[in-house]
Amino acid sequence: MLAASLKPAPSLAAFSPSARRSPAASASFPFPARLNQRPLLSAAATAEGTGTPASQGDAFSYSYTAAAAPPIDEARLAQFAADWEAARADKEQGNILTLPVLRSNSGGLIVKYNSLQGFVPNPLLSPAHWCKDPKRPIQDVTKDLVGTSISVKVSEVNEEERKLFFSEKDASWSTYSSQIKIGDIYDGIVGSVFHYGAFVHLRFPDGLYHLTGLVHLSEVSWDLVQDVQDFLNEGDAVKVKVVNVDTAKSRIALSIRQLEEDPLLETLDKVIPLEADQSPDRVMSPSEVELLPGLDGICNELLQEDGIIDVQFGRQALEKRVVSQDLELWLSNVPAKDNKFTLLARAGRQVQEVYLTTSLDQEGIKKAVQRVLGRVP
After folding, report:
1. Is the dihedral of CA 18, 19, 25, 30 positive or negative?
2. Residues near 114 by Cβ (< 8 Å), separated by ≥ 6?
3. Model confidence over 208-234: pLDDT tens digits?
4. Which residues are 111's β-sheet partners?
5. Which residues of 191-212 are buried (b: 16+ CB within 10 A; e: fewer)?
6. Would residue 339 be called left, alpha or beta, if left means φ above 0 and alpha means ψ between -120 and 50 degrees?
7. What secondary structure letter does DSSP report for 288?
8. What is the assigned CATH class of domain 49-174?
9. Domain boundaries, the chain
């Protein structure tokens, strides 16, 4: 069964057959939650101990085993209570804090907040650390942060359960998101890759990677993308374009394909530049032309339509990308000359000019071709 459709150039009204390209990404994308399941710190945040992560998919949980602590006098209890209150206030006000890193473990960093200790899980660290050496395990990266200070925001405060969590990612968003504008182009490093897209860390003018955005499946390539991992892998260096910024949800939508010209907008002159002595509508002799499969049948049917006087063939070429495996017809932007319109027949990477001499206008051509396509098996 031959599948065929007539499609116009971008400047003309769309014909009825549906386009075969993947739909463009909408303004919002199915980003995962910043952390699908909040980490659980099951011990006093003021106690010494070690944390061990357990992960499954995008959900993370943390156990924190407290060591024996000396008795706490009333003055210290009052200080703890005051610091828990201060932590709640910092969370409500969205304050950015600079806290010293006391220790690291396989799950993240333990930081000092006044008289309390809090936890920064690895997923809530800024990508700036990992992107310095993407091949290095995150546990090795966090060891280097012990003894330094990092900028964070309070992400969770629960005095009863002794949970005090911080996010460096939230602090980075507050600091750098105002610099992100739609249309900006960034160098990036691919982080996590999922079936729906890939997260890319963005390189800022200071040379560090402060924010992360999503390249949705539909924005990876103009080619058909069924598995993102066929195109992108963790650690790949890429260029991306910002296509949407959702400040309310702290999300950035990115595109790789929009940095490349849509192959459907390429003209044959770009595929085969004309020589100085060539005419753009030079008719090819039968010996020079190897018609695309099914094109001869369509053209014979076109000649049966009222108002279509002649069908001839022009240049052939191979395009950069596969537009469609099926035979498709596109109405060219080339202006009609002496009632001769130009169609582009495409199948796979092959493209063929077809010259249609007719007394019909553009709308009449569309209707005639649609009738033909409905008859061709």
Report:
1. positive
2. 79, 83, 86
3. 999 999 999 989 987 778 889 999 999
4. 101, 118
5. bebeeebbbbbbbbeeebbbbb
6. left
7. G
8. mainly beta
9. 4-23+263-375, 49-174, 180-259
